[in-house]
Write a structure and sequence with these properties.
With 303 residues, the protein is mainly α. It contains 13 helices and 2 strands; from the N terminus they run ααββααααααααααα. A hairpin with a 5-residue loop joins strand 1 and strand 2. The longest helix is centred in the N-terminal third of the chain and has 32 residues. The protein is globular, with a radius of gyration of 25 Å. It starts with a helix and ends in a 7-residue tail after the last helix.
Length: 303
């Protein structure tokens, strides 16, 4: 019996050798994810059920009252509306412009490499640098945009000071920042399409727009699906440009949910409600992403 147990242990040790080696390779990633992802997420869920002190320590258990307070709060509701409008402004616009530029840059023209560099240049700029550039462009008196509008007799617009225009201004900045990455990914997808498909279409006499509709878009659909998903998630997480350009104003018109979380946690020291907002944001993004995969992926044509 003892000999059988020894043999069985040795057999189990040999059978699990690959698993142990795999876990050894995964150990650094597991440690990093545990420290920077799993633990903060668990702590956020925990704090969302408490009122906290100024140091962020749980003080009084309140259950779901933080969530109830947020759902009844006019400030939070306005933040959600602003975030939804911001996503609607930025995601379709970013993808459409990046697709248009990628189609232009994919043409075999002399000097097209220069334009590819220009179109993708925004990817190499930080959020802070990009926001500062647009801060000067949107300046109500010396800004380049208002100066350009003045040439056509259009009165100056208070881009970052008018609640009507502030969110649009943040959206324009975000679109400009996102174009570089989206452009490169879409251009890579275009260049991976089999050229023989276009050659056959040319022989059959198909025009450019017919090829675009019947060949380019179906073959590019996995890339577009990826870009739409990434841009969608990133739009919900926008923070830096809001902090530099408007700080959530004027009249909280640009108080996106991520900036609202920052204000509650690090300005008002209300870590409980900030954590609850973070959980709500996670649930919204998770559900909408699942819906996008469920319904959007049906139109994706994998080669």
């Amino acid at each position: 019996m003892e000999e059988f147990q020894v043999v069985n242990k040795e057999s189990f040790w040999k059978r699990t050798k690959n698993v142990r080696i795999a876990m050894l390779y995964l150990l650094p990633s597991i440690l990093l994810f545990s420290v920077f992802l799993f633990y903060p997420m668990i702590k956020t869920v925990y704090l969302s059920f408490f009122l906290t002190d100024s140091k962020g320590n749980a003080a009084i258990f309140v259950g779901l009252e933080n969530y109830q307070y947020l759902l009844e709060s006019a400030r939070f509701q306005k933040s959600m509306v602003s975030t939804g409008l911001f996503v609607l402004y930025t995601v379709p616009t970013s993808v459409i412009i990046a697709l248009f530029l990628a189609l232009l840059a994919n043409e075999k023209l002399r000097g097209i490499g220069f334009f590819r560099t220009i179109f993708s240049s925004t990817m190499g700029m930080s959020v802070a640098a990009s926001a500062v550039i647009w801060l000067f462009l949107f300046h109500p008196t010396v800004g380049t945009i208002n100066h350009f509008l003045g040439l056509f007799g259009i009165p100056a617009v208070r881009w970052l000071l008018d609640p009507t225009w502030a969110l649009i201004s943040i959206a324009i900045t975000t679109v400009w920042m996102n174009i570089g990455f989206s452009f490169l990914i879409i251009l890579g997808g275009l260049q991976n399409i089999d050229t023989t498909l276009y050659e056959s279409a040319d022989i059959d006499g198909a025009g450019y727009f017919y090829q675009l509709r019947r060949i380019t878009m179906p073959m590019l659909s996995p890339t577009l699906f990826f870009i739409i998903t990434i841009t969608f998630i990133n739009s919900f997480q926008s923070f830096g440009q809001v902090d530099i350009l408007t700080r959530g104003g004027p009249a909280e018109s640009t108080n996106l949910i991520v900036y609202s979380i920052y204000q509650d946690a690090f300005i008002n020291y209300q870590f409980g409600t900030a954590s609850a907002q973070a959980i709500i944001l996670f649930i919204i993004v998770f559900v909408l992403t699942l819906l996008q995969f469920k319904f959007g992926e049906r139109k994706v044509h994998y080669q």
